[in-house]
Amino acid sequence: MNKAWMDWAEKAGDHLVDFGNPTVAVAGTAPGVGGYSILQAEKVEDLAELVEAHPHKQMGGNLDLYEIVTPPGM
Fold this sequence. Notes:
Layout: H1 2-12, E1 16-22, E2 35-39, H2 48-52, H3 55-58
Antiparallel strand pairs: 1-2
């Protein structure tokens, strides 16, 4: 399984800013986010193929894309 993650990271190339880590919910009732990676692209569509090939998705998991935004005035 580690090979699949390393192969994906290589394919991501410059789009991959931070490989990320798994996460565990410590409060609340929802399972929350199971992990993260930080990607960059000019357009979210540029990441579509890359996300489809993500090992977690290939194992039947779900992936959501979130945009990191700068708060107004910052």
